[in-house]
Amino acid sequence: MTLHAEWTKLRTSPGTAWLLLAIVALTATLGALADAATRCPSAGCGLDPARVGLTGVYLSQAVVVILGALAIGAEYNSGMIKVTLSAMPRRLNVLAAKAVIITGLVLASATLAVLGSLSAGLLILPGRGFTTAHGFTMVDGPVLRAYAGTVLYLALIGLLSLGAAAALRDTAAAIGIVLGLLYVLPIVATVVSSATWHRHLEQLAPMTAGLAIQDTVGLRDLPITPWAGLGVLAAWAAAALLAGALVLRLRDA
Amino acid sequence: MTTDFRLLVRSEWTKFRTVRGWVAGIVIAAFLMVGIALLDHSECGGTVTPGGPVVMGVGCSAPLGPGGVAVTDSFYFAHQPLAGNGSITARVTSLTLAGGHGSLSAWSKAGIIIKASTRPGSAYAAMLVTAGHGVRMQYDFTGDIAGRQGAVSPASPRWLRLTRSGDTITGSESADGTHWTTVGAVRLSGLPAIAQAGLFAATPGASQTTSQSVTGSSAAGALTLAAARFDHVRLKGSQPGRAWAGDAVGGSSPGQGLRRAGSTFIVTGTGDIAPYTGGTPVERTLLGAFAALIAVIVVGAMFMTSEYRRGLIRVTLSASPGRVRVLAAKAAVIGALAFGAGLAGGTAALLLGERLLRSNGNFLVPATPLTQVRAVAGTAAVLALAAVLALALGTMLRNSAGAITGVTVAIVLPYFLAIGLPTLPAAIGDWLLRVTPAAGFAIQQTVTRYPQVAASYTPGSGYYPLAPWAGFAVLCGYVAVALTLAGFMLRRRDA
């Protein structure tokens, strides 16, 4: 019942459909543009076709952040949360239901988005030098892992954002903090010049670690293995959801 | 400013200061700038990657040239004292690789030089041939005048001449030793009565690879040697009876030296006589601005959107029906606050960060006080503009989520993509830093790009594709357009 109520709320919010559409459009379009702009003139050009094709995720994840944060933040901002919690006194169920809905919606749109990038890559990349002659296969195990993993990556970003908004009880602050974690942390991490610590930060920052799932080339030199990287992001999302659950449970709405 | 507008600004300021979260956001922005500068514990001479290429001693120190510019001044110098006015003439018949792998880098150079002394960083003027850029007249490290193009070879030698007359040195070149063309005449300050005149050769590391980080780069490469063959060497005005002395200016390296065979001089040297492009740019201490940006963007957007959320906007607009003026007052308040936070945080970050970097042995690229003021005040202005942009977008969207994400994605993401995404072609990265609001970060640049030095001039090492004020103007343009649109929509729509 809680699930159904949350689904109805999110379904009937005016922005949801646009946000989901934006995820698909931005991922696929930017991916296609990056495909078209890249050249791999020879074998061993060091470029990763999966990474290139999935460049759009850098932008579309921001839309996922909005979607996740609004799912609960909008209720706090409008005072609707009091109605919600009066109707559903089991607060954790409310958060869990929101998490399930967000995961489902993001998984669905991210799958479409990633399929769009994949088709763009299959069409464009071979013409840009990513050919079998240069040692690339367009669809194999690692490539499928990169694309499927990106779907999971976006779902986890949605959960991270939902958890942050539940913990901070404010959309704006949550979006600011999550975007800061994603985009600013890797920039600021460069003040750490010690190679060892820098590597640690790359292993810990949610975006750099999580997007390791997209790597299909040079796997031995990565700061973190693809699945472990996605695990790091999952830990971030779990921590945010836990904080959100605690705040929701313990504080007055 | 009319009294009316002053009242409006005042009421907006009252609104601002009574919301604890907004004040906290602005204070946090200032502290983030300082805090992140204090995290920088870089030490000089660190390795890039374990087991990676050996890093030469870059970034730890550099002599200063006549203009206060950091310079590289190491080469092999075969010289004699030149008292007062006089001239030196020589014919160069070849410039070749004498040690190391690969080929000579295009800016390998050899020729004749008149230099104040053998101390690195002292004033000089030189006529030289290069491996890939023809004949040049170079002086005092930053000066570079192009002469005839084409490579030097025994079949196509170059005659070079430098004439000193007082403080003025005239450089000329010739193909045959009889028909001379003047390449340039330059005034050197601080040239003593007895200068050193002679032959030199230098080559920067041939196989240079540069590792990129946000604001620092380190070059690594195999040491190469360049050998130049001279004949018809003639000194006029030199103290008679003096012999040629050989010196490795700026530290000796194996393989450098002077060999003579009859009237032929072979000078073998390594190094470079050029502006130094390593070191840590001072704006590295301002990296915290990226974190501060997020804070001021959040506050800037909410300053407007929370009025819509609570319906307060109707009260505000009933009290002051000049809607555009309300927007202007809000922009003035949030802009001034973000600027103040950026200025306070940035000044502290620069002063403390510079001290910290120096105490860890880093070499900071010298920047004039005016340039440093531009970098700090410019960074503060970028924060102010970002906050105003968020305010304008918040007015248009009436929704903080969209405004915050929109501005962050417009300012921070292009910068991240340009410096942090190896898969993105450099041309696209440069393009992003030209046309997106992220172009504004160019205002932080304190380092100079020298066409006569081959270095990695990437945004990651502090070189932006647009000039500081041009990049800043791009950001200003975005803010102006956004404010205009926001004012227009505020007037046209019901609140």
For the structure shown, list the relevant keywords.
heterodimer; A: 253 residues; B: 495 residues; alpha+beta; 2 domains
Task: Give a nutshell description of this structure.
Chain A is an all-alpha fold and 253 residues long. Chain A has helices spanning 2-12, 16-37, 49-53, 57-78, 80-87, 91-124, 141-168, 171-188, 195-204, 206-210, 226-250. The longest helix of chain B is centred in the C-terminal third of the chain and has 37 residues, at 323-359.
Q: Which two chains have the most extensive interface, and how many residues on each?
A: A-B, 41 and 52 residues
Number of strands of chain B: 16
| Structural Rg of chain A | 19 Å
Structural class from helices and strands of chain B? alpha+beta
List the helices and strands and how they pair.
The complex is a heterodimer of chains A (253) and B (495).
Chain A: H1 2-12, H2 16-37, H3 49-53, H4 57-78, H5 80-87, H6 91-124, H7 141-168, H8 171-188, H9 195-204, H10 206-210, H11 226-250
Helix pairs in contact in A: 1-6, 2-4, 2-6, 4-5, 4-6, 4-7, 4-8, 6-7, 7-8, 7-11
Chain B: H1 3-17, H2 20-38, E1 71-99, E2 109-115, E3 124-130, E4 135-139, E5 143-146, E6 158-165, E7 168-174, E8 180-187, E9 194-202, E10 209-212, E11 217-220, E12 225-238, E13 245-249, E14 257-261, E15 264-269, E16 272-275, H3 289-310, H4 312-319, H5 323-359, H6 369-397, H7 400-420, H8 426-435, H9 468-492
Antiparallel strand pairs in B: 1-6, 1-9, 1-12, 1-13, 1-16, 2-3, 2-9, 3-4, 4-5, 6-7, 7-8, 10-11, 12-15, 14-15
Helix pairs in contact in B: 1-5, 2-3, 2-5, 3-4, 3-5, 3-6, 3-7, 5-6, 6-7, 6-9, 7-8
